[in-house]
Amino acid sequence: MIDVFDIMGPIMVGPSSSHTAGAVRIGRMARTLLGEQPVKAALYLHGSFAETGVGHGTDKALVAGLLGLATDDMEIPNSFTIAEEQGLKFTFDEIDLRDAHPNSVKMEVEGVSGRRLKMQASSTGGGRIMVDKLDGTRVSFSGDYHTLIVQNMDGQGSLSDVATALALAQVNVANMSLHRSTKGGNVMMIIETDDPIPGYIVELIEKQPGILQVIHYRRES
What are the residues facing 40 on neighbouring strands? Predict the structure, then answer.
């Protein structure tokens, strides 16, 4: 079934839902997953993003998202100036990403505390996005759900501990996937939920043995 969003696209500053609105959402996703204000960003444009992105404002839209601007913010065209005022330094380059969607970008972002994030994402049309890689690990989530990202050491019981914590809060899981680099290495859980996860549950999960990092992405309304 096709919904109205697919036909009309998001409320946004144009000219393109995929090259502009989607790019803003990708930037906002990177900012959220970083968990703090970004101060440095290296952005590598692939495919159509590289070929026609500047004409569609993709570069300014990505920076706008990193600044936390929404898709309908009239300041998107001024994002480079705002970034300079807020101390966000950024660079753009082109890249050929194997087996990637034509509207893709690889981002390497650093925050105020020195924390770093590597993310590859694509704009799939109508303002929708897909995160394809996170810190070198292949993932697949869209931001259309509230999303819990848990990084933990590979060991017995971690998944059960997280599932138990979510059950305590009566949070309904919509989708779940596990991504492991190697046996005995680190594991990344991607858990998409229908409802936001209470802060105390996120803190409870963070305290479980073997948990390395927990990020809670709240779906944009």
Answer: 89, 110
d(CA 81, CA 97): 29
Contact 96, 50 (CB under 8 A): no
Q: To 10 degrees, the CA torsion angle through 168, 172, 177, 178?
A: 0
Distance, CA of 57 to CA of 59 (rounded, Å): 5
In this prediction, what percent of the chain has a pLDDT beyond 90?
66
| Paired sense of beta strands 211-217 and 173-180, if any | unpaired
User: DSSP labels for 47-84?
Assistant: EHHHHHHHHHTHHHHHHHHHTT--TT-TTGGGHHHHHH
Contact 9, 21 (CB under 8 A): yes
State the pTM of this model. Answer: 0.84
Note the pLDDT of residue 136: 87
- pLDDT for residue 5: 37
